[in-house]
Amino acid sequence: MLKHRLIPNIILNNGNVVQSVQFKHTNVIGNAVTAVDFFNSWAVDEIIVLDVSRTKDQRQNFHKIISGLSKRCFVPLTVGGWISTVDEINQFLKEGADKVAINTQAVANPNFIKEASNIFGSQCIVVSIDVKKNNSKKYKVFVNRGTEETQLDPVDWAKQAEKLGAGEILLTSIDYEGMRNGYDLELIKNVTQNVSIPVIAFGGVGNWQHFVDAINIGKADAVSAANIFHYTEHSTYNAKEFLSNAGINVRMPVFYKLPTPRRPKYDEIY
Amino acid sequence: MLAIIEYGMGNVRSVYNAFTLLEQDVQITSDPKQLRDTDAIVLPGVGAFSDGMRNLREKGLLNELTEQVIDNKKPYLGICLGLEFLAEKSYEGGITDGFGWIKGTINRIEPSDLQLKVPHIGWDDTKILKSDGLLKEMTLPAFYYLHSYYFKIPESQKNVITSVCNYGDVEIVSSIQKDNIHAVQFHPEKSQEAGLKLLKNFLDEIKK
């Protein structure tokens, strides 16, 4: 049976891994390569890396980081943040990414989803949707790293993204992100009931039960989190074990003997 | 030396990275001539069947592949599209001829359970039918799949199938082996230790 996926999200601000609370970034945790090595506790099913820098000044550095990461990442790697052209998607794929997440540019020009999925295939195009309740308590899609409100309703937008060729939806609640009270289950449910492509839930995990809720109540196909994985050892493995014990069909790591060093030596990455 | 063929279909870099981790000398190439001097050939690829076949033809790779793999019996590993190309033809977006090295056709995955999503994306259990060669020392591994079409092999030819994955009532052929030809539908380069183990097993096969 197809398994539910556990996906750590590595949030990078000017090349540093940061914690994120309602899209405000503090606490530099370290560099991304260490983070990926850390996640090579071999329990994660995929990795997402997002560039949330406020400017594109350090963009070349971000590309270098992706090339370095992909050498150590033997699960699918999704890259997002600031992506607005076919050329840049191509560049990320050449650097070893498997999928890209598109957000602001998809709203600005929905046809970009169509263009990108025609060229690279739907499986490569994740549409990332950031959602926040506005002043009149209505769910609205926000763009530009959560700074700009649009008139889009998240469910309508998700449906449109699917129609245009998106392969997956990465769904983030800005209000819940970093608050550790669990996912916005109502939002997740609204979206999963209305699209037939996989939905990755993100934002708000404070304990492992929150993953179970997103899958059982929200009907999410995959669950993602960032901050919670930073401070505890073997955290992804423990999360997997919790999910498995809760009766969720997940992949448990099996350790095959490989005659090579577990931590191979690579050339200098940066 | 092992050659990975680059023909404009998807990310060959991750296949390269996986073999590099296994300390295998490996080269990415689009040049047919380079296939003559290698010990083995890997053909990865994600995307449309017809685009892939066209690219292989236009670059002169198809003729060279046939000569090296069929005539010279050089070990071949096909990944995803590299498995689907082995078929006689594909029904993806019209009818396109494949290599025809293995009997059967490429058909769309259509489980009768409409809850099951297509493409078939994610980690899925893989039932091993022949536990030697690439699958040695494995029991029910989970591999990462990413495809909308699958290889349908006629009953009389099914002895080439080495593992399968049941997706609802569709039995997806996960891997094939026939003499020097090996192929997998899933992505070993993205399937962590299970995938790396399979690639290592392929390297062991080459050395035999």
Strands ordered across the widest β-sheet of chain A: 1-4-5-6-7-10-11-12
Overall domain count of chain B? 1
Q: Count the helices of chain A. How many?
A: 9
CATH-derived topology of chain A = TIM Barrel
Strand order of the largest sheet of chain B: 2-1-3-4-14-13-12-9
Description:
The complex is a heterodimer of chains A (270) and B (208). Chain A is built from nine helices and twelve strands. By secondary structure, chain A is α/β, with parallel strands linked by helices. In chain A, a hairpin with a 4-residue loop joins strand 8 (139-143) and strand 9 (148-149). Chain A is globular, with a radius of gyration of 17 Å. Chain B has 208 residues and is α/β, with parallel strands linked by helices. Chain B has a single domain (2-207), classed as Class I glutamine amidotransferase (GATase) domain (Rossmann fold, 3-Layer(aba) Sandwich). Chain B has five helices and 14 strands. The longest helix of chain B has 16 residues, at 192-207. Chains A and B meet through loops of A and helix 1, strand 8, strand 10 and helix 5 of B.
Descriptive keywords:
A: about 270 residues; alpha/beta; TIM Barrel; 8-stranded parallel beta barrel; 9 helices; disordered C terminus; B: Rossmann fold; 4-stranded mixed beta sheet; 14 strands; about 25% helix
Concise overview:
The complex is a heterodimer of chains A (270) and B (208). Chain A is α/β, with parallel strands linked by helices and 270 residues long.
